[in-house]
Amino acid sequence: MTKYTYEFKVKLIQEYWNGDISYSDLMRKYNISSMTTIRRWVMQSCGKIHSLV
Q1: Is the sign of the CA dihedral 50, 10, 25, 16 positive or negative?
Q2: Given this model, what pLDDT does residue 2 score?
Q3: Is the separation of the CB atoms in 10 and 49 below 8 Å?
Q4: CA–CA gap between residue 1 and residue 48 (Å, rounded)
Q5: Are 45 and 14 in contact (CB under 8 A)?
Q6: Alpha carbon distance 53, 9 (integer Å)
Q7: Which tens digit of pLDDT belongs to each residue from 11-47?
Q8: Beta-strand runs (E) in the chain
Q9: Spatial CB neighbours of 23, under 8 Å, sequence gap ≥ 6
Q10: What pLDDT is stored for residue 49 in this prediction?
């Protein structure tokens, strides 16, 4: 299982919220194996970025 840093998660979430990029596009761009992982990070980020660690 791959561990991602807090900084990486924040960067990815900010890119999602600030741009016209989908979960699947982010998955391909950053070579993440599951869209569910990205979706979970984004959902957790709603108002509480610190909970991602």
Answers
A1: positive
A2: 75
A3: yes
A4: 24
A5: no
A6: 9
A7: 999 999 998 899 999 999 999 999 999 999 998 888 6
A8: none
A9: 16, 35, 38, 39, 42
A10: 55
